[in-house]
């Protein structure tokens, strides 16, 4: 059972954390950071050793060399403060996925810990822990930012439909008579899901845009007050289709690494800076990669953690919030292509760029572009017609030439179906 008053308390408290003054927001962050980092250095031995190895005091945390998912996983047992091993977490999470039990929980001396696995190719999968306290906090923040018509919306009956993968269930479980949460299992047939969604008549619809579009195409009808796009990059074409079919769309940037950005009343995405500290590494052409420090998360401290995502930031917002604005989530670096340049060096080609080229091909419904060799791209097209192959080849070659990419081979084929429940990725790096 979830403590509704606690969630509501967090939601109300959140109102005081919508800073308009950047200096105040930064003072708030540094207060949280001082307390949190001190706690983490005492309770997480891996975190303590990072400070020791870098020769830094806890107060110098912003200079700590970032770690990535690989290092987090390699040191899982000494990084987490719940005293659980990676083997225990993997066993519980995998069992839960097989049995479709979406609230896998590990009981520890410190309390219940929800476990989750992030999607990712084998060897690249992340394991994540969230304590009960953290779950309540998360629910409060989400409620405050996403419930239509806050705070009056609390007084009306709300039906929230979540269409999520198993790992999304890390954050299931907010429920009461007024606030009803319904979970639609992504592994069910899409026609069945569409029927169920129509029957629920959600006031708030939350899911990955690819799946929501598929439900729309399968005949689902719903008029939620708000559609929330999560877990995948929201592309303009999908946004337009969802707005026409269901209603207003907002985007939430939630990863297993944390709740990273939330929409403001003006429909723009702002970093969740009241709870998470962000530094950014510039990667050229306006793209940045976040290094995040979660200022509250204790079960699995996320400190100077480099995210494999690529963002484009924007200047200010008409809503006047001090939290920085994300113009676009441009893709995951894991999916970036690595192609030879005309002069023989290697170039990184971001997924966003490939999408831009293929989105210019008229009449192309769907596609996947995969790098399958050192200089070979496989383009799966739907429909797979000779004229579309020609147009796709033209757009790709001219786009790649502009970036200085040298001679590459393009192969074509029809679009193959995703694995059930797989994250939809239009640009895939499968060459290593
Ligand atoms: Zn705004």
TrEMBL record:
Signal sequence extent: none
Q: Which InterPro entries match?
A: ANL_N_sf, CapK_Type1_Caps_Biosynth, CHP02304_F390_synth-rel
Domain of life the protein comes from: Bacteria
Q: What is this protein called?
A: Adenylate-forming enzyme
Instruction: Give the organism, scientific name.
Output: Deinococcus rubellus
